[in-house]
Amino acid sequence: MGDEKLKTKFLRLYSVSVYNERVVSDFGMWNGDGTLETFIWQIPWRRELFDWEKELEKQLMDLITNTHWNRDKSDEWNWVGENVTAYTVQSGYRAVKEVQDVLQSDCFRVIWELSVPQLKFLNGGLC
Q1: How crowded is residue 101: how many other Cβ atoms within 10 Å of its Cβ?
Q2: How far is residue 59's CA from residue 12's CA, in Å, rounded to a whole number?
């Protein structure tokens, strides 16, 4: 929603969701006569939510309930790896290659080769 993914904003709820890799439309159904329809949310959890998680659930429900959903538009995943919306093996390869190039760059190699003095512990504390 906006620039932040629901998965990121509500990571704890995502971790206890029954269906982590589903699209939004899988978590409910349309209710109404075709003229005035509303989306009824039904989000299944792997277990009973703790009280503090129920507060997160309320925040999530407030956010998604106050969002306009268009029944005529399909709920879909979009590939944002390149300036295209459709995933291709080539665009996926390029995205992985970019990450791999960064991880193999000199700055990361230097970090892992640094000599760091060993910390010593005495009676549960640093010495």
Answers
A1: 9
A2: 12
C-alpha 42/C-alpha 11 separation (Å) is 18
Supply the DSSP string of 30-60, one letter for each residue.
EEESSSSEEEEE---BSSPPPHHHHHHHHHH
- The conformation of residue 110, written as its DSSP 8-state character, comes to H
Render pLDDT for 48-94 as a digit per residue (tens, 0 to 9).
999 999 999 999 998 888 776 666 766 666 677 667 667 778 888 88
- DSSP β-bridge partners for residue 122: 125
| Residue % of the chain over a pLDDT of 90 | 19
Spatial separation of the C-alpha atoms in residues 75 and 49, rounded to whole Å:
27
Asked whether 66 and 59 are in contact (CB, 8 A), the reply is: no
Q: What single-letter DSSP state applies at residue 124?
A: T
Instruction: Please choose, from the candidates 81, 83, 77, the residue with its C-alpha nearest in 3D space to the C-alpha of residue 98.
Output: 81
Overall size of the chain counted in residues: 127
What are the structure tokens assigned to 81, written together? 């790896």
- Residue 59 CA to residue 64 CA, distance in Å, equals 9
d(CA 4, CA 85): 18
